[in-house]
Prior knowledge:
Blueprint: E1 11-14, E2 26-32, E3 35-40, E4 46-50, H1 51-57, E5 58-63
The structure holds zinc ion.
Amino acid sequence: MEILKYDLWDVVEMKKAHPCEKHSKLFQIVRVGADIKVACLGCGNLIMMTRFDFNKKIKKVIEHHTEAIPHKG
Ligand SMILES: [Zn+2]
């Protein structure tokens, strides 16, 4: 399995849309540690998952940021 390179604050596209009103596939990485925490850019909800799960669910890195960006909800 290929593991994508990503960093804190990167905006990433996930394989599955968030089951929220916006059905956004775009998330921003807001914490990188043993676990990864991402924020849905559609609704702003935070989702925590293990790195292993994240590596399976990420589709690609969209763009790099250096700080939190506001969600569009
Ligand atoms: Zn959402």
